[in-house]
Amino acid sequence: MPKRPDNQAWRYWRTVAGAAATIYLPFGWTPAKAAAKWKVGFSQCTTLEPWRVQFNKDIQAEAKNHPDVDLIITDGQDKTQKQVADCENLVVQQVNVLLISPKESAGLTGVVEKAIDAKIPVIVLDRNVDTKRITQFIGGDNVAKWHERTAIRHHAGHIRGLSSAWPNA
Q1: Is 30 buried (19+), middle (13-18) or exposed (0-12) by CB count in 10 A?
Q2: What CATH number is attached to the domain comprising 112?
Q3: CA separation for the pair 135, 26 (Å, rounded)
């Protein structure tokens, strides 16, 4: 079972969850469909990691503070194809904004582009996708953090996740 992130990382991701739940609309933008409630779709790549489960709980708690928000969370079950299907479904539901934490960058780019073409703002969390057309990216710079930590501790080493899922791809 993965360890819980350190306190600094934990505070960071709780802040991200709160920021993601607070919708920012660019000047002059209007939603694709006027609705009594804002439909916020959140495509989570997996719930196998405890911090992602907590992320979902935090964003649900924040959404409860906004009665005009209808939050829809999907679980990609750690499968790119499932997450693509989830996002396609959220586009069909005409969500007012799509939050997405991609399993991998390249695999989710196409469906993100479809959402953008449907005039749905897309906020990408944690890992980026291979397009510059997104509304906002919220995530850490893990490469800079690694350099900062190794310079301070004088350690050498490199931890790498999925090669197709760089945070700043």
Answers
A1: exposed
A2: 3.40.50.2300
A3: 9
Residue 54, amino acid? Q
Note down the domain range covering 87.
Answer: 7-20+35-153
Residue 92 lies in a domain: yes
Over residues 92-101, the pLDDT tens digits come to 999 999 999 9
Q: What angle do CA 143, 159, 46 make, to 5 degrees?
A: 90
CB atoms within 10 A of CB 169: 15
Q: Which two tokens stand for residue 45?
A: 């790549």
- CB 108 within 8 Å of CB 83: yes
The tally of CA atoms less than 13 A away on the side-chain side of residue 149 is: 10
Q: CA-to-CA distance for 162 and 164, rounded, in angstroms?
A: 5
Listed in sequence order, the DSSP H helices in the chain are 7-21, 50-64, 80-92, 105-117, 142-153
Task: Please indicate, yes or no, if residue 29 is contained in any of the structural domains.
Answer: no
The four Cα atoms 132, 133, 138, 139 give a dihedral, to 10 degrees, of -30
Provide the sign of the torsion angle of the four alpha carbons 24, 29, 32, 37, taken in this order: positive
CA–CA distance, 134 with 115 (Å, rounded to integer): 10
Overall number of domains in the chain: 1
pTM, two decimal places:
0.67
pLDDT (0 to 100) of residue 9: 55
